[in-house]
Write a structure and sequence with these properties.
The protein has three helices and no strands. It has 119 residues and is mainly α.
Length: 119
Amino acid sequence: MFEAVLIGVGLAAVVLLLFLRDFKITIITMIVVPAVLASTVLLLSVLGMSFNIMTLGGMAAAIGLIIDDAIVIIEQIDRRLHSEEKKAARKSAPRPGSFSSLSPAPRRQPSSSSFRLRF
């Protein structure tokens, strides 16, 4: 049984590394998952409940949800950080043509063949 747990943790770590490409986040998640399992076992023993197929299945599903949520949340944080960096870069960059001439750009006149609504 202990072998199956180690194989599961190893496969989960590989999946996290493939999706997140960040070793630090993978280590944090691999620390959180056993902590959640330990707290679940402690809570079950305090409440006097035993392990059966249903509780073990629920714990397995919870592990999958924790890892899936970690992937989704980290990707969202990463996307927000990169979008804020892009916004800051756009604000600090000069506008094209703003320093090239002092005269305003000529306005384009609509052509006579432009689309008009007919009623």
